[in-house]
Automatic annotation (TrEMBL):
InterPro entries: MFS, MFS_dom, MFS_trans_sf. SUPFAM superfamilies: MFS general substrate transporter. This is DHA2 family multidrug resistance protein-like MFS transporter. It comes from the Bacteria.
Length: 463
């Protein structure tokens, strides 16, 4: 069966999803889990200086509070999405909420760096158990005709929580001690338990779990992220990490090539709309992360703005993403995905280009306008592209599609960070500008992919 035939059969099947009012309760449950997972990352970053001071931890070591969490999420997403397909989404959701809640409590009670980092590793594992479900749950909660709207709600929630995260963290630290940064998760997790029974019953995968592929996946993704992070600081160490990661990845791909439901979803990547969406997503998130790492240096060191103004300018981008998400969701249900994504990627590239082309003495309003335009482009891109990724996968592989979506996002963000590190190493004086140029190049790559996708009739079917 060809990609085109398989996809048309999938698209023409009866719309699935939950009926109201169960759908509304399932959405509230999903939103609560998504909010706690999104808030936790940004809130914890704000508390790092306070944690370092009160626990007498070296500032260079306290960053492991963030690194341990992120690394565990990266290496766990694909294996856990495969496990979720086998044990059921609702059971995995309940387990994820439990692990996340107990580990949050452990972090709040920690009195040393070892205890706190151990708690954050467990917390990252719990977060990955939830994150690997988000895409698949959306695919099964909403009827296909409303899938774009559902994805837009997710994007809006992430955008709003990203904006509120630093503010919420600062507020908590102003009225309470740092352990409450983590303890606040407990009541939200308890509330999420109430909605587990409303989540959809997703068909399970009966294929035996591949433990060797799981180990290879952990090695490949873990060492790849470590290698990218060390690319500038320790090139020799980075080279070894990337070489071993590449070897593990090659063996993993060879092993997964002929499997029915492989841990690395090569079966989904053979579906052209999904493959195009994955490639475009990786470049898009690399562009966003490269710009978010570079622009604070550019705004502060080159343009002379204060920390408060830098925070405001970055917040405008996230606000634009949150505002644009609902509109993009509605339009993604009516217009071709490739055209919408091409417009979004082009707007993101134009917004970033306009930001660094403005005169250094430009008023704050004009910079906010270019940042808002870039955020509008990213928000316009994200929802249609995620819709193509999730809708292109068969329903019984929605867990793998959701895990692949989350893994692509994290990998793209890590690659964007590595590009900025290379830019600063190439030129200390112009590193910030080169980092933004790298972000623009990634956005243009996403634009090019969508042009090719539009010219390919199989990849631009109405989903």
């Amino acid at each position: 069966m060809t990609d085109s035939t398989a996809l048309r059969q999938h698209v023409s099947s009866p719309a699935d999803g939950l009926d109201a009012p169960r759908r509304y309760w399932a959405v509230l449950t999903l939103m609560s889990a998504m909010s706690v997972a999104t808030l936790d990352a940004s809130v914890a970053n704000v508390a790092l200086p306070t944690i370092a001071h009160e626990l007498s931890i070296d500032p260079a070591s306290v960053v492991w509070v963030v690194i341990a969490y992120s690394l565990m999420v990266v290496v766990s997403l694909l294996p856990l999405s495969a496990v979720a397909e086998r044990i059921g989404f609702r059971r995995m959701f309940a387990l994820g909420i439990t692990v996340f809640m107990l580990s949050s409590l452990a972090c709040a009670l920690s009195t040393s760096l070892v205890g706190l980092v151990s708690g954050r590793i467990a917390q990252g594992f719990g977060a990955a158990m939830l994150m690997c479900l988000f895409g698949g749950l959306v695919r099964n909660i909403y009827p296909l005709r409303k899938l774009g709207f559902g994805i837009s709600l997710n994007a809006m929630m992430v955008g709003v929580m990203s904006v509120l995260g630093p503010t919420v963290g600062a507020f908590i630290l102003s009225v309470a001690s740092w352990p409450w940064i983590f303890a606040i998760n407990v009541p939200i997790c308890l509330l999420s338990y109430l909605g587990v029974r409303f989540l959809p019953d997703v068909p399970r995968n009966q294929v035996r779990f591949d433990w060797l592929a799981c180990g290879l996946s952990v090695v490949a993704f873990g060492l790849c992220i470590v290698g990218l992070d060390a690319l500038v600081k320790d090139p020799v160490h980075a080279a070894w990490c990337l070489a071993v990661a590449g070897l593990a990845g090659w063996v993993l791909l060879r092993r997964s090539r002929d499997q029915t439901a492989p841990l690395v979803p090569l079966d989904l990547l053979r579906i052209k709309p999904v493959a195009f969406a994955v490639a475009a997503s990786a470049f898009s998130f690399a562009a966003q992360m490269a710009s978010f790492v570079s622009l604070p240096f550019y705004f502060q060191k080159v343009m002379g703005h204060s920390y408060t103004e830098v925070g405001l300018l970055l917040g405008v981008w996230s606000l634009a993403v949150a505002i644009m998400a609902p509109l993009a969701g509605v339009m993604s249900d009516k217009f071709p995905v490739a055209i919408l994504c091409a417009i979004g990627a082009g707007c993101m590239a134009l917004g970033l280009s306009g930001t660094i082309m403005l005169p250094l003495n430009t008023g704050l309003g004009w910079i906010m306008a270019t940042m808002f335009f870039g955020g509008v482009g990213f928000g316009f891109f994200q929802t249609p592209n995620n819709r193509a990724m999730l809708a292109g996968a068969p329903r019984n592989r929605s867990g793998a599609a959701g895990g692949m979506q989350a893994t692509t996002r994290v990998f793209g963000q890590s690659s964007g960070t590595a590009l900025v590190a290379v830019a600063f190493t190439s030129s200390a004086a112009h590193g910030a500008v080169l980092g933004v140029v790298a972000a623009i190049a990634c956005a243009l790559a996403a634009l090019f992919i969508n042009i090719v996708r539009h010219l390919n009739p199989v990849a631009d079917l109405d989903l």
